[in-house]
Fold:
Amino acid sequence: MTSLKKLQVVLNYQFRDEGLLQKAITHRSYSKSLNNERLEFLGDSVLGLVISEHLFKRLKQATEGELSRIRASLVKEEALATVARDINLGEYLQLGSGELKSGGFRRASILSDAMEAIFGAIYLDGGFDQVRKTIHYLYEDYLVTLPEPKSLKDPKTSLQEYLQSVKQPLPVYQVVKTEGKSHDQTFTVECRIPGLNLVTTGTGNSRKRAEQMAASIALKQTAGAHD
Structure:
């Protein structure tokens, strides 16, 4: 059995056009012209809609903010990478030699992108009802027990709410350093809270992650100071 056939068994879906699946598992390091980036773009929206629909129907008392936080926890990179690892997706990926040597088949960003691309490919191949079935099938364990919305507030939101509760000005975030090549950058961000004369620093492979780290540190320091 070929790897494409095995992957279709794992996905519980038989493609009419296997070329779509082939493209979905092909990273741009393997082919700059025939890779999964466009399918990833489509799959991202498809996944968001399927998860949104599920949450909307199931959590009838949840607010928009609560629904948004739960959805974000299910479609973020780490969640997608977990689903990808559940089916050993890394074994099927087409990667360039550099990515292979550096362990790209284990990297969360590559796994999550490929997972989204597969959803996009299934949508094109079998339609919305089919991709909904596939997403529900792969996400089954994670949709059974949904996280509590309160536990999903990101550090920036929590910090903002805390500062508002103690009548302090909101934090200001600023990128102070960017290192690395465009596809593999590390950002350093400062979080300044003028009213408390507090500055914290966070780093991450995106500006957003660096801001969240800085906010998390600031939240611990401010909350501790006002306990």
In short: DSSP finds eleven helices and three strands in the chain. Residues 38 and 103 are 23 Å apart (CA to CA). The longest strand covers residues 172-179. The two ends are 62 Å apart (CA to CA).
